[in-house]
C-alpha cells in the first residue's frame, strides 16, 4: 500500500460539526476499502484566494492515509459526487512527517506570539 495526504475544501455554509463529520465519513470509506487513516486535522473555516462556486470561504480538512490506490480512487469519486465538497487534492508521499502539519504549526506559533500590535494595542492618533 502507498502513503497519501488528502486535503479537501467543504462549502462555507455547513457547520463545523458537519465538516468534521465529512472527515470521519471519508476516513471510513478508506477503511472499508482496505486502507487506514493515520491522522486527521480540521484546519477551520478559511478565506480562499478566489471564489469557488460563489463561496468566498471554505472548511479545510487534511488526512494522512495508508491505502491501496483503488480505495483512494473510490474516496475521490465519492468526494466528487458529494455536494458539500468543493475541491480535493491527493498527493502520494514517500513517508509521513511526524507531528502536526505545517498549517497547524503556523497556527500554534501565531497563538503563542500574542496579540498583534497593529490591531488597536496602540493609542489612536486623531
Helix-strand layout with pairing:
Elements: E1 2-11, H1 16-32, E2 36-52, E3 55-67, H2 69-81, E4 85-93, H3 102-113
Antiparallel strand pairs: 1-3, 1-4, 2-3
Helix pairs in contact: 1-2
Task: Describe this structure as you would to a colleague.
It is a single chain. The protein has 126 residues and is of the alpha+beta class. The N and C termini lie far apart (64 Å). Helix 1 runs antiparallel to helix 2. A 4-stranded antiparallel sheet has the order 2-3-1-4, covered by helices on one side. The longest helix has 17 residues, at 16-32. The chain is built from 3 helices and 4 strands, in the order E-H-E-E-H-E-H. It has one domain (2-111): 2-Layer Sandwich (Alpha-Beta Plaits), CATH 3.30.70. This is Small ribosomal subunit protein bS6. GO terms for molecular function: small ribosomal subunit rRNA binding; structural constituent of ribosome. Binds together with bS18 to 16S ribosomal RNA.
